[in-house]
Design goal:
Blueprint: E1 8-11, H1 17-31, H2 38-45, H3 51-59, E2 62-68, E3 71-79, E4 83-89, H4 98-112, E5 117-123, H5 127-132, E6 136-145, E7 148-158
Parallel strand pairs: 4-5
Antiparallel strand pairs: 1-2, 2-3, 3-4, 5-7, 6-7
Helix pairs in contact: 1-2
């Protein structure tokens, strides 16, 4: 079996909103079933239902898209140069280094823009991924989504080591 082709990065474009919303939904439904029940997944994925609001959210953040053969396979959004607000990888690309590529890039960009710490509210599914990258759990959260509650963990990572 040959390795998957390397992904490349580019800034998100306004025209990406529909595709990235679908990617987010696919990721939630395919990858989080061990940690969240169907009602929780539905409530979580509903954040991408209002495409106009979703597009505005992406536009208001530093958003990078990972692509393979021109097709989006993941994306990351950085809010206020200090919070990884969204990080999703298409289920078919999961475990192939796309999340690592996205996180490496956003951490470097945030540090270059002066950030010394990054935080994220990691889903139970993504928590181990962030911890392997050096993020440390700060608090456990229960987040309301409609009439459903989702658990996640706020994680934090110091950037740099004195080097910009």
């Amino acid at each position: 079996m040959s390795a998957a082709p390397a992904a490349s990065l580019r800034p998100a474009l306004p025209a990406d909103a529909e595709t990235l919303a679908a990617l987010m939904r696919a990721s939630i439904f395919a990858l989080t079933g061990d940690d969240y029940d169907e009602d929780q997944q539905e409530a979580w994925a509903a954040a991408a239902d209002d495409e106009e609001a979703f597009a505005a959210g992406l536009a208001g953040r530093l958003t990078l898209v990972a692509t393979r053969d021109g097709e989006p396979v993941g994306f990351v959004a950085l809010a206020d140069n200090r919070v990884i607000d969204l990080l999703y990888v298409h289920p078919e690309a999961a475990g192939q280094g796309v999340g690592t590529l996205l996180c490496d890039a956003i951490e470097k960009l945030a540090a270059a823009r002066g950030a010394t710490v990054l935080t994220a509210d990691a889903s139970d599914t993504a928590l181990a991924f962030f911890q392997k990258r050096g993020y440390v759990a700060q608090s456990r959260n229960s987040v309301p989504r409609g009439d459903v509650w989702l658990g996640n963990t706020t994680v934090q990572k110091k950037l740099g080591d004195g080097a910009a």
